[in-house]
Amino acid sequence: MKSLSNKYYVYALALFLIGLSGAIREASAQLRLPRPSQSASVMQTVGITDVTITYSRPGVKKRTIWGELVPYDKVWRAGANEATTITFSDDVTINGQKLAAGKYSLHAIPSKEEWTLLFNKAATQGNYSYDEKQDALRVKVKPQTAEFREWMTFEFADVRPNAADVALHWERVRVPYTIVVGDVNSLTLTKARATVATAKADDWATPMQAARFSFENKGDMSETTAWLEKSLKIKEAPANLWLKARVMADAGKTQDAITYGERSVQLAKAADPKADTSTQEKTIAEWKAKKM
After folding, report:
1. Assigned superfamily of 184-291
2. Beta strand segments in 181-251, E
3. One-character DSSP codes across 234-292
4. Whole-structure pTM over 0.85, yes or no?
5. Do 188 and 203 contact (CB within 8 A), yes or no?
6. CA-based radius of gyration for the chain
7. Domain-by-domain residue ranges, the chain?
8. Is the Cβ–Cβ distance between 254 and 287 less than 8 Å?
9. pLDDT digits (tens, 9 = 90+) for 174-201
10. Reading across the β-sheet that carries 97-99, which strands appear in turn?
């Protein structure tokens, strides 16, 4: 009987310890502790495309990094702790190669002369679960010698209207690559169509903004006019009336431009607080002088 009771005791103790372990894990999930490699995130908008890189920043800490801490010719998570991820809100090209919008884990295979960057569809994986079959894109890049940097960093070194140069910089190595978002105007107008189509019935500002962008970037005038008229039908405001005046002036309809322009100024002056209309009044005066 004593032997049997001992077995029950051991069994009960085991269940207690298992439960205690689970309780500790659940409780500790709420506790944030400092990490040797702290988390970081960098986001850059290119045109209207958001690019976000989330990673952990290892330090050099007087160690030999390349070829030792980070072996050559083996997959590395391009950071520390969890896998580094990179997210694109729209389709892009990386060094000229197409990559669809989405979230990817970013890995690298470093070597002395050339690196391979791996954009992998499994966006939550670590090195030990890396699956080559999930690679969406592999890009060859050339490492550069750079000034010493203790903590690894991803940086957007140069941003242009439709492109950005991104670089991983750690120790004395910098690894750059270029992201291109394509035709920003075309992408903006495509998104504008969807946004205008789903705008609320009393939203006059959204179609006006779409019309203004299309007008200022030489979009299709029939579409520009449709958006503008939709805005004006919902509500006449200084902004959409002034845009109408500009459209009329551009079409050579000077008297109509003056009429809409003066209506815009009138509403702006009646607003509380009053808007500064000096620029608009100067333009209207130029239109009147041209008409004479």
Report:
1. Tetratricopeptide repeat domain (1.25.40.10)
2. none
3. H---HHHHHHHHHHHHHTT-HHHHHHHHHHHHHHHHHSSSPP--HHHHHHHHHHHHHH-
4. no
5. no
6. 30
7. 1-33, 38-180, 184-291
8. yes
9. 999 999 998 999 999 999 999 999 999 9
10. 97-99, 92-94, 163-180, 144-160
